[in-house]
Amino acid sequence: MRQSPANRILILMKTEGPQLAAAIGDALGISGEAARQQLAKMAEEGLVEPITVATAGRGRPRQLWHLTAAGNRQFPDGHAELTANLLGTLVEQLGSEALDTVISAREAETLTRYRQELERADDLATRIEALAAIRTREGYMADSWKQADGSFMLVENHCPICAAATVCAGFCRSELETFRAVLGARVERSEHILAGARRCAYRITPD
């Protein structure tokens, strides 16, 4: 199904960050003016807004467009409010140990499932690529690539369990440990959505 220009812009900003109108036009195959008209319409709907950024030297300031909170809510949130309420009730009624048990069980199930899907990946690069594909399927809008120094990056542009992770940081810890176990490599989180970053990013190096 063909996506509307607005949806394509939302996805572009979600995966690539703030954009110039001209860059959006290039990505969509339309003129910069047409892109600005589309952005103005989306701004009226509260989905995007511009930020003026000063340039080095005497150049004119540039206007970067980025997603608003409403724009970010266009992406799946995994039933955020219900999830947060359920976790809060679980801790209130059964204690934090019960939540730890749930997280551990989820981690074990996820690790087993990921290992089964990656069993034919016989090198680190292939495992990372396959893991990114799995995470994208699960709603994380993931991507991966190899860097010039030989390390790898795994990036997740969206977090469908953000509400759960906000209530309990154990979910983020669990995912990091799962990545390390399934990849058999050193994995360090370099960007974190819950810390205010636009995305979660992981630097991966062989053990």
From TrEMBL:
Q: Which residues form a coiled coil?
A: none
PROSITE patterns given in the database record: GLYCO_HORMONE_BETA_1
Q: Report the GO molecular function annotations.
A: hormone activity
Its domain of life reads Bacteria
Cleavable signal peptide: none
Query: What GO CC annotations are associated with the protein?
Result: extracellular region
Matching entries from InterPro entries are given as: Gonadotropin_bsu_CS, WH-like_DNA-bd_sf, WH_DNA-bd_sf
- What name does this protein carry? Transcriptional regulator
